[in-house]
């Protein structure tokens, strides 16, 4: 996990770990903005509550991940979807959560 250093007003240097802004060299960050990420997160929570917390089978989860790995929105360095911003290892776990592009 990369670390970012910032200088504080008292002269000390603060090191902060960055979770969500890592991209591989040559790859453009394509995540939605924070407001959209928050909205998507709330929608996903609502869908899980509404449709139930039924898990996907390991085989189905693996099929979804294979589709994501070939998708143009896939951000490999973060294992996230650039369309919705979700972490795909989590998003594929529940049947209530689906691809925003309708691919699975
Ligand atoms: S969830 Fe859908 S849009 Fe996102 S990376 Fe996977 S296949 Fe692509």
Q: If you had to describe this structure to a student in words, what would you say it looks like?
A:
The protein is of the alpha+beta class. It has one domain (24-104). Helices cover 33% and strands 13% of the residues. It has helices at residues 34-51, 58-69, 88-91, and strands at residues 3-7, 13-17, 74-75, 80-81. The relative contact order is 0.17. Residues 67-68, 71, 73-74, 81, 83, 99-101, 103 line the site of iron/sulfur cluster. Iron/sulfur cluster is lined by residues 67-68, 71, 73-74, 81, 83, 99-101, 103.
SSE order, as H and E? EEHHEEH
Quaternary status of these chains? single chain
Q: Quick one: overall form? A: elongated
Q: Which stretches of 5+ consecutive residues score pLDDT under 50?
A: 19-23
Summarize the structure.
This protein has helices at about 35-50, 60-70, 90; strands at about 5, 15, 75, 80. The protein is of the alpha+beta class.
Present the secondary structure layout.
Blueprint lengths: L2 E5 L5 E5 L16 H18 L6 H12 L4 E2 L4 E2 L6 H4 L13
Antiparallel strand pairs: 1-2, 3-4
The structure holds iron/sulfur cluster.
The site of iron/sulfur cluster has 11 residues, from helix 2.
């Amino acid at each position: 996990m990369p670390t970012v250093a910032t200088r504080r007003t008292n002269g000390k240097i603060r090191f902060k770990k960055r979770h969500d802004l890592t991209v591989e060299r040559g790859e453009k960050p394509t995540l939605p903005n924070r407001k959209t990420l928050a909205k998507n997160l709330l929608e996903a929570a609502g869908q899980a509550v509404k449709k139930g917390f039924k898990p996907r089978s390991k085989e189905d989860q693996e099929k979804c991940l294979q589709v994501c790995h070939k998708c143009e929105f896939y951000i490999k360095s973060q294992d996230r979807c650039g369309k919705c911003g979700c972490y795909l290892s989590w998003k594929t776990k529940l049947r209530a959560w689906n691809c925003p592009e309708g691919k699975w």
